[in-house]
Amino acid sequence: MKKERSICILLLLFAWTFGAFAQESRKIEYESDRTIKNEEKYPGAFILSKVQNQVHFTHEGIEVWCDQAIHYAEENFFKAYGNVRMEQGDTITMSSRYAEYNGTTQFAFASGNVHMRNPQSSLRTDTLFFDRTKQQAYYRSGGTVQDTASVLKSRIGRYFLEEEKYSFSSEVVLTNPEYVLKSSQLDFYSDTGHAYMYGPSTITSDASVIYAERGFYDTRGDNGYFVKNSRIDYDNRILEGDSLYFNRSRNFASATNNIKVTDTINKSIIRGHYAEVFRDKDSVFITRKAVAVALQEKDSVYIHSDTLMVTGKPENRVIRGFYDVRMFKSNMSGKSDSIHVRQSTGLTQMLGNPVIWSGENQLTGDTIHLLNNPETEKLDSLKVFDNAFMIQQDSIGGFNQIKGKEMYGLFEDNELYEVNLIKNTETLYYMRNDPGELIGINKTLSSSIKVLLEDRKVQDIFYLKQVDGTLYPEEDLPPNARQLKGFIWRGDEKLNRMEDLFAGEEPYEPLKIKGIPLPVDEEDFFEERDEDDLLLNERSRLRPEDLKERATDTITPVATDSLRGILQTRDTISPAGDTIPQEFRELRDTLQNVPVQDTLQGTRREERQQKERQ
C-alpha cells in the first residue's frame, strides 16, 4: 500500500514538474543589442532594438528577426517592426514590415509587403493572419502566389501548411505563359502544381477556351480533367460532354458521355458517348451511339454508325462513318457498310452493300454516290455504280423492278424526279389501267431506260434502243419468274423516322465517370473561442471585430512609403510623417530620446542562463 502511494506521489510530482517545465518552455525567448524600459509609455514591456544585429525571438520552432520590437514578457506577446523575418523550420519563411505574435495562442499577424515562401511557391499580400496551432495562413486583402509555372491572384486566400494547399475564393486568376485560368473558387497544391476548380471557371489561351463548373488542372504537366457543364471552344469547333480530358502539349482532348461536337463553320453536329479531338490534325473521332447531323435550312441529314471520323480544315471537311452506317432525312434514308462525305464538294459516297429509300423506291448497287449542292444545300443528283437496282413494291404484293449496270438520278427540291439506267437494262413492271386493274406483267430488255417520278412514284418509263419486251398475263408468269436476277428486297430495314437510326441496337449504358469531390467544408479560420482563450492579446493593434470572416479587409497595412525608414536603427530614423500611425511615432520618439549608454544591454536568454548558473 505504501509502495503504491509512493508511486502515485512520484507521478504527481513528475506531472507537476513536467507541466511547470512545459509552461516555461512556452515562454518567448529573445536576443537584442539594446533593451530599453519605458514604463510610462509601454508599461510592462521591453523595447528591443537593433544596433548591429537584428532583434531575435524564438518560440517552439519559430524564429523571428526584426529591427525593433515591443516585448511583453509576462503576456508572452511581442510586436515586431522593420525588416521582419519569420521562419518555421526549413519550410516556411515570411517577411513583412510589421508583425505581432502571441506565444500563448501561437497566433501571428503580419502586414506591410508580406512575403511568405515555401520551397515550391511564394505568397505576397498586404496583411496575413497565421495560426500556428492549425498551421494555416489567411488573407482577405488580395494576394499573389508565385509558383514554378504560374502566378495566382485572388482577393481571399487560405494556405494549409501541412497539405501545402492554397484555397482561393473570389476573383481567382491563374496566369501561365500559355493560358489564363479564372475561377470563382480554386484549390492549389504547391508541391504538385495541381489545381482544383469549383464553380464557373475558364481557361483561355490563343488556341482554345475551356469552361467547366468543376475541374482539375495540372499546371506543370499542362493537362486537365473537367466535369459539370464542361466544354472546349476551338477556333471552329466546340466540344461538350459530361467529362472532358485536355492535354495542351499534345493539342488533344477527349470526352465521355453525352458528347456534342459542333462545327461552327460547316454547321454540323456530331453526338456520341466517346470522342477524341486532335487539334493539330484538325480531326475528330467519335463512337458509342455516334451520329452526325448536317444542319440544313429546311431538312437536316442524320448519319449514324459505330464510328465517325471528321478530318480536314474547315474549308475541306470530310466525314467518314464505319460499320453499320445509317442515314436519314425526311424524304430519304439509307444504309451501307461505310460512308464518306466531303462537305466542300457536297459528295456523299456510300460503300459496301448500300441501299437508299426514296418514297416507296428502293435503290441498291455496289456503290452509291449522292451529290449535294454546297451553296443551296439541296440534293442535286445520285449515281449507282455496278448492279444498279430500283425496286418498288406493287399494291398486290409483287415488285416493280428496274436494273442496269449503272443508274443516274436527278433531284428537284430534294425530290427524286428522274432516273436513267444504262447498259444491259431490264424491267419487270406490273401494268395497270386507269382504274388500277392489273393488265399484265411486262418484262423488257433494252440498252437504256428513263424513269420519270412524281411524288416519289413512277409515272412513266421510256425504253431506248434495242427494245425486247413481253407483256405476260399474271397467270402465265410463275412466281419464281417474277424477280430479276440479283433481286434483294430490304424494305424491312427502311428508316421511317429519326429514331430508327438506332433500331435493333442494345441500349447504351453510360460509363461511370470518376467525379471531382466537392471542396472540404473547412471550419472558419477565426473559429469561436472562449473569452479566456482569445487569439489576440489586448496589446495587439487588431481588435476582436477584425477576426471575423468577411469579403474584404479593413485593416490598414503598414506598407506605405511614408513609413520607410522609421523602423531602422536609431541613427537612421527618419522624421515622422503625418500618415505614420501614432504607435510608430511614439516608438521612434522613445528610441531617439534614450542615450545608448542608458540602455539595458544583454538578452533575456543571458538572464536565464545566469539564473541557471546560480
TrEMBL record:
Keywords: Cell outer membrane, Membrane, Signal
Region (Disordered): 586-614
Residues spanning the signal sequence: 1-22
Domain of life of the native organism: Bacteria
Keyword Transmembrane listed: no
Compositional bias per record (Polar residues), positions renumbered to this chain: 590-602
Domain Organic solvent tolerance-like N-terminal: 50-183, 242-369
Stated name of the protein: OstA-like protein
